[in-house]
Amino acid sequence: MWNSTIATLMKRRPVTVRPETIVSNALAIAREHAIDHLLLAESDNLVGVACTCDLERAPGRAPASTCMKSPIVTIDGATTIREAADLMRSRGIGCLPVVAGTLLMGLVTRRDLIRAGVPIDALADACSSCGARHHLDPRARGTPFCVECFDCGSQEGVELGAGD
After folding, report:
1. Any idea where the domains of the chain sit in the sequence?
2. How many of the other CB atoms lie within 10 Å of CB of 100?
3. What is the assigned CATH class of domain 6-122?
């Protein structure tokens, strides 16, 4: 399983929205498709990824681009499941767009890898305060904290880094 390519798991038609799509519409699209990550594309160019967690905290009339992460970490279809899992864990991300050059081929998420049998511990650390496995803050070095716990002060005594 670990050495299979990601092309065997990826969603072949990922949902995309334009960067200027307003947050409330982007959330409605994500809910309609029962997904947690929206890809933002402009003229067939992938420009960012927005997580529904971030969209839910944003003003409803703001453009989705205010929530997107960029630059985007991508992989190609020949990437193995092990390589994808390692990349998700090391970068603290929940999805990887699959590309061939500049062409978007698909999307693989943490949930896809878990369904394929990858243990969740191989994909993400957990927040030392609340146990969340998403939105871990790259400013905390050594001891993982999610953004919410980091911002509310639960990280006292943690060595801070420059971020990723």
Report:
1. 6-122, 125-164
2. 11
3. alpha beta
At 48-60, the pLDDT tens digits run: 999 998 999 999 9
d(CA 162, CA 138): 8
Q: pLDDT of 18-27, one tens digit each?
A: 999 999 999 9
What does the angle CA 53 – CA 56 – CA 59 come to, to the nearest 5 degrees? Answer: 140
Count of beta carbons in the 10 Å neighbourhood of residue 81: 22
HSE-up (13 A, CA, CB side) for residue 113:
30
pTM, full prediction: 0.75
Q: In this model, does residue 161 exceed pLDDT 70?
A: no
**SS3 (DSSP) at 67:** helix
| Nearest CA-CA partner of 132 in 141, 117, 120, 114 | 120
